[in-house]
Structure formats: C-alpha cells, structure tokens
Amino acid sequence: MDSGNLKIEWARQYMPVLSAISDRFKKEKPFAGKVIGMALHVEAKTANLVRTLADGGATVHITGCNPLSTQDDVAEALGKVPNVYCYAKRGCSVDEYYQAIDTVLDAKPVITIDDGMDLIHRLHTVRQDVLSGVIGGCEETTTGIHRLRAMAADGKLLFPVIAVNDTPMKHYFDNVHGTGESALTAIMATTNSLIAGKWIVVAGFGFCGRGLARKASALGAKVIVTEIDPRRALEAHMEGFHVMSMQEAARVGDIFITTTGNRDVITGDHMTVMKSGVILSNAGHFNIEIDGIWLSSHADTIEERDGIHSYHIGGKVIHLLAEGRLVNLAVPKGMGHPIEVMDLSFALQALSTEYLALHHVELKPDVHQVPDEIDRMVASYKLASLNLSIDKLTKDQEEYMGSWDHGT
C-alpha cells in the first residue's frame, strides 16, 4: 500500500464516529447525484471525510485551503478513490491555488465545504456563473465564519451556510484540544525547543487561545495572553495567566503564537523590541497575523531551514515558522489536529452536509447554526465508542425543569 493510503487507513482506525456515519451513508446514499466542492487542508483525516461523502453517493471535487498544508501523497491517494477528484498540491503559487479552486468550481458543485471561505468568496465574486446551482455550504473555521457573517450583514450572501465552527462540539474539542495540542507539537517538532520555563505569548483568548495557554502552562511554560476583549482578558487573568498588551509582551516573550484570525497582530513595531532568538508562529488562519513583509524588507540576511525562516536584523535574529501560515499544518512535520478530535469535527461536517442536502429549501441565505440534535448526536456517537454511559432525566425531573411554579 502506498504512503498516502497508509496514512488514510491509520487515521480511519481512530475515527469511529465518522466510520459509523459512513456505514449509514453507504446504505442511504443522501448525496446521490450531487456534486460537492471542497477547499480544506488535504491530509489523512480530511481524506476520510471525503471518502465518507463519496460513500453517501456524492461526486467530490477537492483542493487545498492553504498553499502549504497539503500532503501530496494523501492527495494522490484521494485522486484514486472512485468519484473523487483532487487538485491540491503542496507549495503551490497563489495563481495555482486559485486555479485549483476554479477547477473545483468548474465541476458545478451544489454544496460547498470551506475552511476559510475561499470557495464561497470566489463563487460570489469571480465565479458567479456557477452560483445559481449552489444550494448551500458548510464553513469549518472561525475566520471563515467572521467573513461570512460580514457578508450576510451586507446582504451579499446568496445561499445558506452552516457554521460548523460555531457548535459546542467544535469549540470545546477541535479548538481547545485540537489547536492546543497540534500547534505546540508542530512548534516543538520543528524547532526542538523546550517549552518548560519559556515565556509563551498567546495572542487571543478565544477557544483556540485558551487551549494553547492551558496546554503550554501544563508543559511548564510561563504564559502571557494578549487580548482586545476586556472580558476575555479578565478570564485569562482569573485562570492564572499573565495579561498584557502585545507591545509589553514583545519585550518578554520567547515563543509567540497568534490565534486571532485577524491581521497585523504582530507588527514591525513589536518585532523591533523583541529579543534575539524569538520564535514567531501563527495558529489562527491566514498568513497576515504576523507581518512577514516587514521581516523580509528589514532583514540583512535570511536563512531557510525546514519550516523556519530566520531573519537577521541589526544584530539579532527572529525566527518565523511556516512562513506565518498555520503552524500545525504548514511546517514539514505538521500533522494537523489529532485524529480523535477531527473525527468529531468531520462527523459534524458530514451530518451538516446531509442536513443541507435534505433541508436546503427551508433555509434562507444566511449563516445558520448546526442543529442541536446533530451536535448531540456526534457526542452520543463518541460516548458510545468509548463505552461511556450518562444519566437521563426522569419524568419528574423533566417536569420540574420545564415548570416555572415550583418554589423552594
């Protein structure tokens, strides 16, 4: 068996929830005759989602959502799956990246699945010729949801999109544990740097940021959190983390990890005061959180290692990982989120896609939440796979919780 299929099968054995859904899809074929277009990180866990959709009768066209996150052997293996067409490749240029997105859209998908909203953005701007045939989409990540909500607020979103990112099963597991573990793993594997005793600066205390802060602290790091929201900053303080502005943190930090999904989080003003040898990384989304252009334009010399660019500026050196792209996927040793976490996230994707196929006529063009029953179903599947049992409300308890006139 080739290396791509070996990776896919390795992941499959630790994805019991998605496997159970795939078994049902094989029987029911909810996507029979439908074309699904996808722009996701093309690696082993994603491949199992693609195979699950194909098991449900879909013809799937997929490309990457990041120029450095594709695993080429997995992409090659996916291209051999019946009714699956994969156009992703690692290290593609910007032109090649959008050419692959256009190739996906040339297949005239009726459902889109995005990580960052690039397919949907392309559909609404450059490829409006395909737009009328799309019945709905799913969005995987926080950055994409922010963009979609802005688009909907402007009245520009022309089909319903399910915010797969905005569900408890995604926030509490994918964001907290997935990003938290995989980003630190990628940093350590790429740099061979010790976490214990270091000043780790985490930009943003959303679900991803708090997962990173907690796990870095568990490894012995001294964690600084930067925030723009006073409530999240106070929450970080109450959890025992140091809270300060990025300008203050820039003078202290040894390793910086951005998780905001916004731009210009670490700028030249910050890098000017950083100490020599700092490591900069992004676990948010696009490569605009850290100002790599400033680094390139101010560097006296640049050294390149696997996954690391070292910028020598005025007698000190600043190390940028993965060109400022997603560190857990874009470094050469990046594997993305742990398999068991993506089992849950991709189960949500599969069931949300099925929901769109069945209920799209009931949904207006807007950003919609994942139905609560789907979120609970995924949790129940996972508990069953772990042989864990929980309690159920009795009739008296249900009556009590649904009543307003029970006093003390």
List how many beta strands DSSP finds. 15
Sheet with the most strands, sense and barrel status:
8 strands, mixed
Instruction: List low-confidence stretches.
Output: none
Name the helicity range. 40-55%
Q: Examine the coordinates and then state which fold CATH places here, giving the name of the CATH topology of the largest domain.
A: Rossmann fold
CATH-wise, what's the superfamily of the largest domain? Answer: Adenosylhomocysteinase-like
β-strand amount: 15-25%
Report the principal-axis shape.
Answer: globular
Total domains: 2
At the first level of CATH, the class of the largest domain is Alpha Beta
- The assigned structural class equals alpha/beta
Question: What can be said about this structure in brief?
Answer:
This protein has 408 residues and is of the alpha/beta class. Helix content is 46%, strand content 16%. NAD(+) binds at residues 141-143, 206-211, 227, 283-285, 328, 337.
Describe this structure in words.
This protein has 408 residues and is α/β, with parallel strands linked by helices. The chain has helices at 3-12, 16-28, 44-55, 72-78, 94-106, 118-125, 128-131, 142-153, 168-191, 207-218, 230-238, 246-250, 268-273, 292-298, 327-330, 339-359, 372-385, 395-401, and strands at residues 35-39, 59-63, 84-86, 111-114, 136-139, 161-163, 199-203, 222-226, 242-243, 255-258, 278-282, 301-305, 308-313, 316-321, 367-369. The strands form two sheets. The protein has an eight-stranded mixed beta sheet, sandwiched between helices. Helix 3 runs parallel beside helix 16, helix 9 (168-191) crosses helix 10 and helix 16 packs antiparallel against helix 17 (372-385). The N and C termini lie far apart (66 Å). The relative contact order is 0.13.
